Amino acid sequence: MPTSREIINVQVGQAGNQVGEAFWQMLLAEHGIDHSGVSIIFNVFRHVQGTRRLFTSVHSGPLQTYTGTDPLELQRAGTYFTEVTGASGNATRFVPRSVQVDLEAGVCNKLRSGVLGNLFRPDTYLSAESGAGNNWAKGYYTEGAELVDSILDIIRRQAEGCDALQGFQILHSLGGGTGAGLGSLMLSKLREEFPDRMMATFSILPSPKVSETVVEPYNALLSVHQLVDSSDLTICIDNEALYDICMRTLKVPAPNFENLNDRPPEAWNEFDSISPRKSLSCMNTLKLMSIQLHFLMPSYAPFYDPKAKHFEKNSVPELTKALFDRKNLLVACDPRFGRYLTAAIIFRGDISSREAEVAVHDLQLKNSQHFVEWIPDNVSVSLVSVPPVGQTQSATALSNSTAIQELFTRTLESFSAMFKRKAFLHWYTGEGMDIMEFSEAENNTRDLISEYQQYQEATVEEEEFGEEESAEEQ
Ligand SMILES: Nc1nc2c(ncn2[C@@H]2O[C@H](COP(=O)(O)OP(=O)(O)O)[C@@H](O)[C@H]2O)c(=O)[nH]1
Ligand SMILES: [Mg+2]
């Protein structure tokens, strides 16, 4: 049996753990596992017309029929879960390969006493009492630094239990103190200890629409400064966009975190649903020649007002168009102001590969100015025949678009306005932090923005010219 390529999840801070809860709920639903980690599906293999089909029926709730021909699909749960055979020999439990960390006890306690209370191993929770008070320096240099070795011990134990560790994913917000500061510290420590493993982050960017803490732009850019160097892939989730999707499209009158947190898992869902082999090839498509440009924008379709659900019919071209529409992006950027460098799309449901390829090709033709012409085949398409729970068809994309600079520009403007006046810096210097680090974060973000801009303006001719020039030099 081929082994899964395991991922270890590290959720840090309030947002990290709250989004984490939604993420695990999605994984449980997708893999037919109940809240305590016991499989609620039973699998029956049959041979139908020479094709192996796997029927899975759920004991309660609507009957799910899952059809697969790829043996790797059976292993998918293994990416995020360790299978533990019960003492009596029959009840197999699926235990998340995850660590739940916070610098205050409240959020972890809530997770422990909530619906997923029995899911995680008790010894994978780690919290302190002090809190980080929305101060990046406390997460990175003081309070967080005291906890980091104990966290690494837990992660090391999990890594030792893996057959083929793919890497790590960190779920955190960038606007607070713990997820941002301690999350960045974890990232650099893991990078040091596991230099050849993938480091991915799901990073939640702050928006004034959702939070009132004034120093969030500081915390966010101090984190981006670290992510540029230490992460391989950062999937950006922008609270500004989540808020707008909930308000405008889903018609939620006053969205709370729970409403916001349901959105990202819908998009990740698809990446979990493709085989590990395909998922790796998607990731390779998304990585660029410039290692700095690894900030990705997720999008998902369909998002709709539940009241209008029965009036919606989503054809493949409509789903495709929606994926590239700003209203469906989980980042508040307008893709029309940038150019797509690469993108990976996954369609789910009864969709033929021809239908999908044609829809994507047509969209690229009609919007050719928004895709760089110097990377041929820069959009990869994958298909999963099983629709997500409760849907008939859906699509998701992860895009590497130069439009993401808008997100960094927005945060940089707020950062610089405060930094110019040295506002609130004593909070950070009081924890022993050097002001130089603020200037470095500011400059590094400027460089990142101008690198995106450079790629946006690059043309085929320049590339060829560049190649000739370097050939002559040799
Ligand atoms: N989407 C989302 N954002 C959150 C959630 N909780 C906090 N935030 C955002 O995260 C930032 C504050 O960070 P938080 O995670 O509370 O701080 P930490 O506990 O110190 O890591 C602010 O931008 C909040 O708006 C959540 O559950 N979901
Ligand atoms: Mg907190």
Automatic annotation (TrEMBL):
Cellular component GO terms, alphabetical: microtubule
Keyword field contains Cytoplasm: yes
Subcellular location: Cytoplasm, Cytoskeleton
Alphabetized CDD domains for the sequence: beta_tubulin (cd02187)
One Pfam family per UniProt: Tubulin_C
Keywords for this protein: Cytoplasm, Cytoskeleton, GTP-binding, Magnesium, Metal-binding, Microtubule, Nucleotide-binding
UniProt keyword Magnesium, yes or no: yes
Domain Tubulin/FtsZ GTPase: 81-279
InterPro entries, per database record: Beta_tubulin, Tub_FtsZ_C, Tubulin, Tubulin/FtsZ-like_C, Tubulin/FtsZ_2-layer-sand-dom, Tubulin/FtsZ_GTPase_sf, Tubulin_C, Tubulin_CS
Cofactor: Mg(2+)
Superkingdom field: Eukaryota
An example molecular function term from Gene Ontology annotations: structural constituent of cytoskeleton
Domain Tubulin/FtsZ 2-layer sandwich, first and last residues per copy: 283-413
BP GO terms, sorted: microtubule-based process
PANTHER family: TUBULIN
Protein family according to the UniProt entry: Belongs to the tubulin family.
Function: Tubulin is the major constituent of microtubules, a cylinder consisting of laterally associated linear protofilaments composed of alpha- and beta-tubulin heterodimers. Microtubules grow by the addition of GTP-tubulin dimers to the microtubule end, where a stabilizing cap forms. Below the cap, tubulin dimers are in GDP-bound state, owing to GTPase activity of alpha-tubulin.
Subunit and interaction comment: Dimer of alpha and beta chains. A typical microtubule is a hollow water-filled tube with an outer diameter of 25 nm and an inner diameter of 15 nM. Alpha-beta heterodimers associate head-to-tail to form protofilaments running lengthwise along the microtubule wall with the beta-tubulin subunit facing the microtubule plus end conferring a structural polarity. Microtubules usually have 13 protofilaments but different protofilament numbers can be found in some organisms and specialized cells.
Name used for this protein in its record: Tubulin beta chain
